[in-house]
Structure formats: C-alpha cells, structure tokens
Amino acid sequence: MLMQGPIRVLTERVMSRGFEPTVGRLLEQMRSTVSKQPGLISVETLGDAQDYHHQVTISQWRSQKEYQAWRDSEEFKKLSNALSEVLDQPNCKTRILQAPRDDIFLL
C-alpha cells in the first residue's frame, strides 16, 4: 500500500575501501539524474563522522508513487547496479519514512 502525501527516503550505503573516487563519481551522477525527476523535493548525502565509508542519503518526495517511478526507471537501475559493484554490502538499506498525521509528541 502506497503512503499518501510527502515521504522521506533514507538510504544507507557502505563503500568498499579503495573505491572512494568511483563511489563519489557514481553518487554525483545519481544526484544529477535524480534532481531532474518529477516529485523530488530535496536530496542530501551525509557521511558518518566516525567512518567515512558509511554514507546516508536522505531524499524528500511529494509522493511515494513519484519515488517508485524513480526506482523503476532505467537510469536508477543502471546507476544502482554500478554502485553495487563498489560497495561492501551490494544492496543498500532503504527505508521510506513519513511524518505522523497527528500532531503528537514523540520521545
């Protein structure tokens, strides 16, 4: 079931040592390509302060449907396959998140 309304997507990747320039180039290509996708609001990549091989990308989308269209695109598949070849863990972890509908206080 698709979520309604805006979503955020958290993607975690661990790059293989020695492939930093390749991963950087591929992530820049991914960022350039995704920035042209309908529904993308923002995207940011952060590196772990303790282990720079661990990176997290947070993207915000108008809808899960538009995010799924990006995931189903040939551009995404091509770049993801290239990235998988230079990551310690070939499959990145991806989580789809959404703000609670009700205004509640969460600890």
From TrEMBL:
It holds the Pfam family ABM. SUPFAM superfamilies: Dimeric alpha+beta barrel. Residues 1-97 form the ABM domain. PROSITE patterns: ABM. This is ABM domain-containing protein. It comes from Saprolegnia parasitica (strain CBS 223.65).
